[in-house]
Design a protein that fits this description.
With about 325 residues, the chain is an alpha+beta fold. Helices cover about 25% and strands about 20% of the residues. It has nine helices and 15 strands. The chain is elongated, with a radius of gyration of 22 Å.
């Protein structure tokens, strides 16, 4: 990272991430601390300082500190202007400064916001629970950062945020190869819930594979999670029209004794081929999850596949 980056550019970008900024007497930038703002007492003071010249940050209240490069990585900021030097075929944006954070009041005050997404709709869909933004270049879309295994920002993926009928793509995806990691807005626990997209992952607190098939890199990554003891249960919850692809994913892990495998049975719902985890109601999601199918061995998987092969789609 260029430590001599323009202070005013940095102030503008961080303000969208952290809210209002106050200039210090000696050149530092002060914000409300993102690390201790959730405490019961609240954090109403601007105690989180960023020193641009020394490329460091620190909070005098909770003592959280570190270098500016680490802070920008955690916030999904690339101050060098491009997401990746190796991947330039990006559909959403090619420069971090174009991203406008939508979780802070500064978004509503932005004069460009009226061209943006329907804020209430994004809030209702819980998009604001995770790291996201929007862009003047791609209005009407909530933009989610996607990271690789090392935690570096690889590219952005867009999801429409408009109510009712609209003549636009539901998702806007990058052209280049997707990362080998999963989209995990809520981290990892003992259960891995594999879904297709970012909206599905947010809805069921699952893990997006960014499509309907796992890449070799994602398969290796999941194997590592299993071998490290992080995951001992996998629930495959692809869209209703991708049951056969869901069975294919389970086949990848069926011989591993240390993990329990489950498949969401979409046939419990009518018109299931038009459904996905994100467009059904919470009661239907609960029914599907509670009645998911436990697949113990390869024979049960083969039998299940034969049942689905006999269905009329």
């Amino acid at each position: 990272m260029d430590t001599k980056i323009n202070k005013y550019k940095l102030k503008e970008i961080l303000s969208f991430k952290l809210g209002k900024c106050i200039d210090g007497n000696t050149g530092e930038l002060y914000f409300k601390c993102p690390f201790c703002v959730g405490e019961k007492t609240g954090n109403k003071r601007y105690v989180f300082g960023v020193n641009v010249n020394k490329s460091v940050y620190g909070c005098v209240r909770c003592n959280e500190s570190g270098n500016l490069k680490g802070l920008c990585r955690d916030l999904g900021i690339n101050l060098n202007g491009s997401i990746s030097t190796k991947n330039n075929g990006i559909d959403i944006v090619n420069c971090q400064d174009e991203i406008i954070d939508i979780k802070y009041e500064s978004f509503k005050d932005n004069p460009k916001a009226k061209y943006m997404i329907e804020y209430q709709y994004a809030e209702e869909r819980n998009f604001l629970d995770v790291e996201c933004g929007t862009s003047v270049e791609h209005p009407y879309y909530v933009i989610f950062p996607i990271f690789n295994n090392e935690g570096d920002l690889v590219y952005y993926q867009g999801r429409i945020a408009l109510k009712g009928d609209y003549k636009k793509k539901k998702n806007v995806n990058p052209r280049h190869k997707k990362p080998s990691i999963l989209y995990t807005p809520y981290g990892y626990s003992n259960e891995l819930i594999l879904v297709e997209g970012v909206a599905d992952a947010i809805t069921v607190k699952g893990h997006g594979i960014l499509g309907s098939e796992l890449t070799k890199g994602q398969i290796k990554f999941i194997h590592r999670l299993i071998n490290d003891g992080v995951v001992n249960k996998i629930t495959v919850w692809l869209d209703g029209d991708a049951i056969h692809k869901a069975i294919k994913i389970i086949r990848e892990f069926i011989l591993i004794n240390s993990v329990s495998l489950f498949l969401i049975d979409w046939t419990l719902l009518t018109n299931f081929s038009e459904c996905d985890p994100d467009n059904i109601n919470s009661e239907e999601r609960k029914i599907l999850y509670d009645k998911k199918i436990y697949i113990k061995n390869i024979n049960e998987l083969v039998t299940l596949q034969e049942v689905y092969d006999g269905l009329s789609w």
